[in-house]
Structure formats: structure tokens, C-alpha cells
């Protein structure tokens, strides 16, 4: 019998090679009735061990940015494009993202947010279905249809990117604020 999270994530998934190197599937977490969903790239080592998204160093940066934007993760849903940690924390491959898309769609269908935030170029490319340059598109808002929902998607920097580009923190906070305001309207 397959174990699933309350939001329909397959906790025993074996659909791609990432299953062989992970410790566990990392489902999304937060408010299951959130109007705003944040979507990152993939779990890292801390997330693979802890079983929740954004609990490592990038999670600390995200929590600080959320605080600056007047938000908290308790009022959001936070997930990733893939639910298993890629080896060596590499970027998930397009086929891995495609194989795992049913997991994100299950959560979208259950949580039914109004707005999504794509955290980083990998998540933005997966959600928008095309290559995305953060230099050109951070702060942009797109209309997308996914899991039978009409959504707005705000593109922004990944919290881990702030480690290497601290000047982008202001953009991240502004984009989080924008997405929150859009989700409340």
C-alpha cells in the first residue's frame, strides 16, 4: 500500500532515479488552506533529513525575508518542484521535474492557492514551461493554469542565491510582499 501525505504526495515514490539516493520524499508543508504557495527547486541535505522544505540554511534566509515582508510560513504553503534530494545538491534535471510534477499538482489541487512564488530560475522555468532568466524576470507576474487552477505566478530569487548575491535580498522581500498582496485580493 502506498503512503500519501494529506495533500496527496506519494511518500513512497519510485518514479525516477532520485528515489535511490534520497532518505525520504519531502512533501510541502504549511497552511493547507494557504492563498500563497512558494515553490523552490529541490530538497537539500537538511530537508532530506528533516522531511520538510526549506529548513536548512536557505530556509533561515527565507524565514528572515518572510519576516521582513510581514509574513510567516504558518500562513503559506511551501513546496519544491521535485520531492527528492538530487545527488550532491545538483539542479534537478528536466525529466526529474517532469516525473515529479504530479506531486506538485496534487498539492496544488488540495491547497488551491491563488498565487504562487517561483523561488529561483529552476522553479520558474518549471512553472512557466520555458527558460527563465532571473536577471530579466525577477519581480514579474505571470498568469498560469496548473492543476485545473488559474494562478498568478511571481518570479523571484531563490533564498540560497542570496548567500552569493546579498544585494538580491531586497528583491526577494519586495517580491514576497507583492505575492502576498496579490494573494489577498
Summarize the structure.
By secondary structure, the protein is α/β, with parallel strands linked by helices.
List keywords for this structure.
single chain, 185 residues, alpha/beta, Uracil-DNA Glycosylase, subunit E, six-stranded mixed sheet, 8 helices, globular
SSE arrangement:
Blueprint: H1 18-21, E1 29-30, E2 36-40, H2 45-50, H3 57-68, E3 77-80, H4 94-111, E4 115-119, H5 121-128, H6 134-137, E5 141-146, E6 149-156, H7 159-164, H8 169-184
Parallel strand pairs: 2-3, 2-4, 4-6
Antiparallel strand pairs: 1-3, 5-6
Give a description of the structure:
The protein is 40% helix and 16% strand. It is an alpha/beta fold and 185 residues long. The protein has a single domain (18-184), classed as Uracil-DNA Glycosylase, subunit E (3-Layer(aba) Sandwich). The chain is globular. The model has no long low-confidence stretch (mean pLDDT 96).
